[in-house]
């Protein structure tokens, strides 16, 4: 199997991390991969806010969980109330991805960048996880000021990055009846 496809198939959402910080060069390579994602109209409508300060990561975790508690969806409110749950799974690096709201398709563009980040991380055996829950912290407008997210941006997602505690687990079963050919 070629190496890119192998990396794609090996990537897993990692939910346990070593406390050691990843190297600056590794982070730079991951961020460089992010900005090489395709974007509609070549808008490149994103900002990546990199947080490697434990207290700040925890502030986002606490704020997100507080907001999650009030959500009408039971599994989300339960996670918000769960004491041991950390939305970044204890990762030493959190990246917040925001997009310029008036671009053509900022959320899709940012999502393409995130997938590049996850694959770049896996190619270096660094653990990663796409963090939808990060958005809950950014429901509070004050959070935009605190993290210098531009007013014309919306925070879509977070990404957790760090060294893996263990080898990747088995991939969740993939549905295979999703292809239809017309030849
Ligand atoms: C938009 C999006 C949001 C996600 N949010 C979270 C999250 O907040 N926390 C988490 O642990 N995983 C999150 N995930 C990861 C998925 O749960 C995971 O990709 C899925 O279960 C398949 O597992 P795999 O990534 O190991 O293949 C998210 C994935 C996507 C695409």
Automatic annotation (TrEMBL):
GO CC annotation terms, alphabetical: cytosol
UniProt GO BP: 2,4,6-trinitrotoluene catabolic process
Source superkingdom: Archaea
A GO molecular function held by the record: oxidoreductase activity, acting on other nitrogenous compounds as donors, with NAD or NADP as acceptor
UniProt entry keywords in alphabetical sequence: NAD
Keyword NAD: yes
Protein name listed in UniProt: Nitroreductase family protein
């Amino acid at each position: 199997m070629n190496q890119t496809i192998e990396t794609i198939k090996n990537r897993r959402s990692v939910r346990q991390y070593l406390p050691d910080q990843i190297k600056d060069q590794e982070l730079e390579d991951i961020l460089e991969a992010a900005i090489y994602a395709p974007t509609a109209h070549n808008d490149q409508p994103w900002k990546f806010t990199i947080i490697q300060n434990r207290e700040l990561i925890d502030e986002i975790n606490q704020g997100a969980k507080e907001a999650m508690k009030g959500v009408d969806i039971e599994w989300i409110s339960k996670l918000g109330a769960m004491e041991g749950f950390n939305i970044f799974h204890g990762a030493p690096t959190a990246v917040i991805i925001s997009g310029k709201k008036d671009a053509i398709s900022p959320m899709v563009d940012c999502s393409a960048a995130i997938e590049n980040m996850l694959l770049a991380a896996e190619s270096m055996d660094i653990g990663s996880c796409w963090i939808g829950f990060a958005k809950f912290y950014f429901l509070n407008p004050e959070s935009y000021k605190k993290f210098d997210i531009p007013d014309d941006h919306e925070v879509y997602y977070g990404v957790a990055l760090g060294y893996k505690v263990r080898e990747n687990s088995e991939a969740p079963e993939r549905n295979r009846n999703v292809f239809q050919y017309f030849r």
